[in-house]
């Protein structure tokens, strides 16, 4: 078979990423050579390909679902916000420029051309390309310069299915409104809908689904049930709100409690997925000093705005709480830089010399060129493979080696993302942490994070196979959207 499909959504975090991954896994299991694609992604969770290109972490996950090595063409444009108004533009895996929201408009024509070139390369190399939209296609204020939603659908002739999160409520209005806000040419590409995150009896939805079909003249391709534990490799911090709340829950001495500081510009918090998948480890994201009190390990994750997030740590009192800790602290990338004695940043923030938390004997200088790499090494006698994405160059002036960084007592720092996905290293590190925290926790020797990720990708493929009209999806991918009615605004 040959064809392509765009998976759009009524909102951010509606489930576009996981539905795209599920369709990729389902097609790959049918022997179809399928590739994922997202023209433009705004995310602080990213990954480094084998040839040193930075792409969205969700597209790397979707590539794995398709049984492929991630490529820059799968996410040619990546926007990494550094503030409410400015973002770094990453083109084909390399930083292009930093722009504000208005300056970005001047780049749209150039970027659209590059995005379409990537799409055509994938379409030539694979049988099927499953594209993921961005945000909502009904963001009519942004339609003129759209690259990722209906602009892509019209330029490449793609059929579109719209995913809606019913758990938020208002999904029928969101479906209808999404279509009705589009012009006639855009509406012609909308083939139908997928209801996501449903809890309960599907029979109760049928009257609404029938009405939706009647009002829009479009298919409902299925209802995907709510499934716990599908948060790995999520695209943005909105998904953190859907993780189970654990504050105040009593745990025994065999449980290891991990508090992850939820920085305002937190990046690559997917580093913690491997810890959350470890039996006996409880991971929660925190924003106040009191939430650190019962933590055996505190993690300072990555940040796209290291100096600004360091100032936030000080304003909240978290900085003082971290400095006063005697139990383990782990800093990863931006978090590691915050643990340093001083930071010199003329690149990201332009703040110049800034005093760090002083918990590690490290001096950090921000370089204009971003380091993108897939390093390997050894720690605790265990092999470690990881990836690096950073402007900050750390000069270690003491302490003991720890991966590429250092440690002093119970404080650890590294620039390596993904290190905790290495099972042997993760078990050794958690054993060390447990001993320092006085816990009886013992890591489960059989836990494989790679197997856990594969199992979750299979679960996504199963959802598609069991709950969507796969025959109708195949026809849609191959033949495109058939004739559909136009919904005039206010009809």
| Terminal residue distance | 38 Å
Query: Residue-averaged pLDDT, rounded?
Result: 93
- How many H/I helical runs? 15
Q: What is the share of helical residues?
A: 25-40%
Unreliable spans: 242-250
Radius of gyration: 23 Å
Give the DSSP E fraction (strand runs of 2 or more residues). Answer: 25-35%
Domain CobQ/CobB/MinD/ParA nucleotide binding: 6-230
GO molecular function, one term: ABC-type vitamin B12 transporter activity
Family: Belongs to the CobB/CobQ family. CobQ subfamily.
Pathway: Cofactor biosynthesis; adenosylcobalamin biosynthesis
Model description:
By secondary structure, the chain is an alpha/beta fold. The chain folds into two domains: 3-231 and 454-479, 3-Layer(aba) Sandwich (Rossmann fold); 255-441, Rossmann fold, CATH 3.40.50.880. 30% of the residues lie in helices and 28% in strands. The chain contains 15 helices and 27 strands. The longest helix is centred in the C-terminal third of the chain and has 19 residues, at 449-467. It is globular.
């Amino acid at each position: 078979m040959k064809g392509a499909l765009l998976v759009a959504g009524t909102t951010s975090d509606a489930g576009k990423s996981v539905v795209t991954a599920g369709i990729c896994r389902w097609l790959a299991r049918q022997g179809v050579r399928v590739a994922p694609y997202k023209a433009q992604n705004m995310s602080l969770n990213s990954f480094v390909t084998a040839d040193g290109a930075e792409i969205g972490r969700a597209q790397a996950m979707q590539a794995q679902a398709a049984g492929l090595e991630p490529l820059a063409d799968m996410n040619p444009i990546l926007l990494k916000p550094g503030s409410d108004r400015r973002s770094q533009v990453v083109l084909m895996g390399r930083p292009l420029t930093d722009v504000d929201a208005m300056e970005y408009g001047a780049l749209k024509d150039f970027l659209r051309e590059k995005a379409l070139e990537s799409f055509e390369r994938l379409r030539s190399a694979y049988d099927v390309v499953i594209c993921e939209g961005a945000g909502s296609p009904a963001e009519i204020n942004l339609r003129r310069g759209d690259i990722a939603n209906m602009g892509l659908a019209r330029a490449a002739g793609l059929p579109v299915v719209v995913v809606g999160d019913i758990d938020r409520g208002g999904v029928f209005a969101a479906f209808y409104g999404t279509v009705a806000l589009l012009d006639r040419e855009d509406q012609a590409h909308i083939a139908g809908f997928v209801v996501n995150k449903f809890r309960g009896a599907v029979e109760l939805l049928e009257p609404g689904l029938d009405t939706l079909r009647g009002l829009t003249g479009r298919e409902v391709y299925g209802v995907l049930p709510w499934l716990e534990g599908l948060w790995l490799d999520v695209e943005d911090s909105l998904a953190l709100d859907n993780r189970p709340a654990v504050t105040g829950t009593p745990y025994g001495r065999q449980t290891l409690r991990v508090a992850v500081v939820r920085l305002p510009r937190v990046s690559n918090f997917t580093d913690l997925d491997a810890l959350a998948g470890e039996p006996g480890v409880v991971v929660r994201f925190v924003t106040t000093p009191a939430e650190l009190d019962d933590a055996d390990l505190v993690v300072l994750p990555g940040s796209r705005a290291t100096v600004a997030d360091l100032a936030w740590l000080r304003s909240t009192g978290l900085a003082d709480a971290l400095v006063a800790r005697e139990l383990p602290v782990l800093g990863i990338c931006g978090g590691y830089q915050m643990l340093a004695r001083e930071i010199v940043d003329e690149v990201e923030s332009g703040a110049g010399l800034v005093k760090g938390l002083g918990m590690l004997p490290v001096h950090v200088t921000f370089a204009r060129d971003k380091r993108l790499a897939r390093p390997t090494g050894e720690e605790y006698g265990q092999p470690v493979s990881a990836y690096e994405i950073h402007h900050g160059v750390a000069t270690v002036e003491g302490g003991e080696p720890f991966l590429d960084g250092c440690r002093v007592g119970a404080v650890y720092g590294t620039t390596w993302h993904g290190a905790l996905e290495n099972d042997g290293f993760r078990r050794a590190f958690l054993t060390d942490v447990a001993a320092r925290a006085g816990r009886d926790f013992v890591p489960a020797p059989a836990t494989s994070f790679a197997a856990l990720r594969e199992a979750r990708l299979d679960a996504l493929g199963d959802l598609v196979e069991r709950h969507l009209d796969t025959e109708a999806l195949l026809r849609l991918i191959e033949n495109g959207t058939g004739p559909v009615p136009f919904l005039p605004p206010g009809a």
